[in-house]
Fold this sequence. Notes:
By secondary structure, this protein is an alpha/beta fold. 30% of the residues lie in helices and 27% in strands. Strand 11 and strand 12 form a beta hairpin. Helix 7 runs antiparallel to helix 8. One of its GO terms (biological process) is riboflavin biosynthetic process.
Amino acid sequence: MDIIEEEIKKKYNHDIYVALGSFDGLHLGHMKLIDTAIKLAKENNGKSMVYTFKNHPLGVINKKLAPKLLMDNSTKIEVLKNKGVDILRFICFDKKFMEISPEDFVLNIIKQYNIKGIVVGFNFRFGHKNSGDVELLKEFSKKYNFKLFVVNAVEYNNEVVSSSRIRKAISQYGNVEEAKEMLPHPYFLEGKVVRGRQIGRKMGFPTINLDYNEDFVIPKNGVYFTAVLYDNKFYKGITNIGYNPTVEGKRLNIETHILDFNKEIYGERIRLYFLSRLRDEKKFQSIEELSLTIKKDKEYVKSQNINC
């Protein structure tokens, strides 16, 4: 997959079929657009392209409205490469780009690339102040001689799949199972392992603490069955997100007990995949009661399979 991050000086000779969108989560709806572009390119001996942003536009328009991230750029590249996309055009959305008119936006694309087809979603908006829509793009397709393909909404459980729906499922309800069905993989957080208060170790359940990036969606407080990816190997985990009410924690912690694991990995990076929600976080009457509950969680997790 070719990754283009700068303006190119000469026009691409290949016939290009491009999927346009912010693609902030690469969910089922996004992937339907991308699959359509790939299919069209193969049928017409062309090249498929995804034209998207490195950053979320709302982060430039109004930082207060910028949503939490579902996926970083390296993961997007990984997913798109595995999907079979030929070209990824990664744009940095800035104030200059924000001022581009809808027509100039289209012209900039078709002048640089030999665009034969454009694929967009049913609710696609583009150009200055989102003033361009699908109807305007239809007019441009006739004016500038390219084919337009509009993809309808994708539903899961009788509701439209969207990034905002997935964020809500994860952060407000802890419904990581539903999120998993709408994303290309279970939702995960990535970061370095840092030292915690080591209270779990004293109870016989040593844990690792994740130094998480607060720009990403954090699952609702509670206890989760997780898969820990470390050194290219998966391990089963029990992850608690919260303030450790039983031991009077003050900062939101993401703390994981890794089953059948006894290595010291402080300072090393892991991925933490959220597979299912086990229970709410609660304040126990004693450390003993907490320990008994963790034992039950552990027995349940042992019986489960990792599916990432």
